[in-house]
What we know:
Mean pLDDT: 86
Radius of gyration: 16 Å
Helix content: 40-55%
Low-confidence stretches: none
Largest sheet: 4 strands, antiparallel
Strand order of the largest sheet: 3-4-6-5
CATH class of the largest domain: Alpha Beta
Amino acid sequence: MSRSARQSKILDIIFQRNVETQDELVEALRNDGFEVTQATVSRDIKELGLVKTQDANGRYRYSAKNMLEGVLSTKQMTVLREAVVSIVTAENLVVVKTIADSASVVSGAIQQLSLSNVLGVLADKNTVLIVSPTRGDANRIADRIHALM
């Protein structure tokens, strides 16, 4: 599998669960069908700009540094651009269709943007659903995501 797919999966993994060590990340990637070494994961961590942050329980986990600031890194922007297939609104909802198995990564990126008037974000394998208070808010959210692409 490609480096881009592997790095997308790394972001997906750290959004979905707490990963404290590179070994945990290697194991998670292998469980998802990626044949990787610790050295490869180490390079990916550096390229993606991942950092260790302390959670509410005092444990350290990998996080995307730029995403903590509400700004997407170049790699994260690339993942967003390559993964999103379509964006449509329906009343107060925004529906973002993605390529297979990319919705959770896209969902995480959208949430880290700290968009105003987002009540919630849900994702399955290839769809992200964003709930907003009004139709106008949904249109503004969709426009903002379109602008990133």
